[in-house]
Amino acid sequence: MALSRRLLLATLSGVLLAAAFPPYHFPYFLPLALAALLKALDGATPRQGFFVGLLSAGIHTGATLFWLSNLFAAAVLPLCVILSLFPILFCMLWARCQSVLPRVATAVLWVGLEFFRAEPFVLNFGWPTLGYAVAGRPVFAPLTATLGVYGISSLVVALGTLRGRALAITTALWAVACLIRLPAPVPERPLTVLLVQARSGDEEALFEQSAGAKADVIVWPEHAFHSDPRQPGRFRFNNFWPRLQALAKSSGAHLVLGAHVARQGEDPEKIFDNAALVLTPTGELAGIHVKNHPVHFLTDGVASTVAKAIPTTLGRIGTPICFDNDYPEVDRRMVQDGAEVFLVPNMDPDEWGPVQHAQHSLLFAMRAMENGRWLARADVDGGTSAVAPNGVEVGHVKNGEPQTLMVRVGRTTHRTLYGLGGWVFGPLCLFGALGCTGFGLWKGRRASP
User: Fold this and answer.
1) Which residues contact 398 (CB under 8 A, 6 or more apart)?
2) Which helix (DSSP H) or strand (DSSP E) does residue 224 occupy?
3) Rounded CA gap, 45 and 91, in Å?
4) What is the residue extent of each domain of the chain?
5) Each residue of 232-277: pLDDT tens digit?
6) 400 C-beta neighbours (distance < 10 Å), count
7) Which CATH class for the 191-411 domain?
8) What is the DSSP letter of 94?
9) Residue spans of alpha helices (H) in 119-202
10) Helix, strand, or coil here: 310?
11) How far apart are CA 346 and CA 223, in angstroms?
12) How many helices (H) and strands (E) does the chain have?
């Protein structure tokens, strides 16, 4: 096959991959994206595989992650290059080893590299992971609740290995599955949750919108307080803890809120715990969760390694904070500790842009689907929403203005197959990818004259 035709197929692959994610969000032909990529690699040399991967991954990452420039300006270019290295590596390895590896190895190699990019790798950024393209599509909930986001990715790649009529039929079935809309399940043991949206640090707006609330739980955004509200402020009106206790008592609700908790002996402006505090209706502190995954390159607190559910009279609740939900393990560990529902302080500010907001919502939906839990999050600018265990969104604010959203969410104690062991699928694919690569390189070398 001429290099020009390979590059044409790589371009088609990159366009279809990008189209599957917001702001386009057209995942109906995602298997064709992989089919085009694999066709471009048929009989290719590793050098040709490099150019095929570079073009496909460059289009995919550039057309979907351009919003990172809102955070990192020109540094978005090296970031996209780094994230593209993994699909490029896949293309080079598959070009080298495809003649001696079975077809099933395609999905193992792809998912293994996806998993490494999203979790063990130093940047651990998984937003381009294929499975997220259909987060919130309830038909995929059973597979997601079994093998998680990487199970969806493996299905996409497996379908992409098909050819001819088989590919056409399965792609049509995939598109139909993406189009099917199902209702959210009826909440079990329902809770009424008031999600309060206001700008980070605008404490007065948060108090004002929460006054007189009739809810079981009130959730405020991440960074609601840029200091520890339990500590007296420099001025009298900054003594927030008594006001929070009074709000809890007057509303009869639990409060979940984001705050900075100072670390002893450190500058609280630079080094702090980014925490979710939970207050009981009597004004007592029920527990604290400290963010496990601060946002890269930003002043976002010191990473914790503890992910526990917080016991309350409403049951055990999980309070993963914003970026924690970008990683499957935090929510999963909270469910292992008994979390019955996720109540999330979140911060996706306006300056990060609507594309970031839309893409981030897919990750929250995926965590709900993997763990079979309701998830409600209070954001600072338009992301305030709630998701059912099958990924269906049951409520969302209309804009980024300060406002509230009242939702009913369920509580459940059952564990999905994903939580019981299916989560190891990603790590197993990584080890499988290493094994396939080693075997393929060894076998290919032996077959060489």
Assistant:
1) none
2) none
3) 10
4) 3-183+423-447, 191-411
5) 754 444 679 999 999 999 999 999 999 999 887 777 777 899 999 9
6) 19
7) alpha beta
8) H
9) 141-160, 164-179
10) strand
11) 8
12) 14, 12
Closest CA to 130 of 170, 166, 163, 160: 160
CA–CA separation, 407 and 154 (whole Å):
34
* Sign of the CA dihedral with 174 first, then 175, 176, and 177 last: positive
Residues 60/87, Cβ–Cβ less than 8 Å: yes
CB atoms near residue 246 (< 10 Å)? 12
Distance CA 349, CA 360 (A): 12
Amino acid at 437: T
In whole angstroms, what is the distance from residue 449 CA to residue 443 CA?
12
Contact criterion met (CB below 8 Å) for 196 and 219: yes
Distance between CA atoms of 147 and 165, rounded to whole angstroms? 28
SS3 126: coil
Quote the DSSP letter at residue 295: P
**Segments of the chain with pLDDT less than 70:** 233-238, 443-449
| Amino acid in position 242 | P
Q: What is the separation, in whole angstroms, between the first and last Cα of the chain?
A: 23
How far CA 156 is from CA of 8, 152, 345, 387, in Å, comes to 21, 6, 32, 24
> Residues 51-103: pLDDT tens digits?
999 999 999 999 999 999 998 888 899 999 999 999 999 999 999 988 888 88
Query: Any idea what DSSP says for residue 283?
Result: S
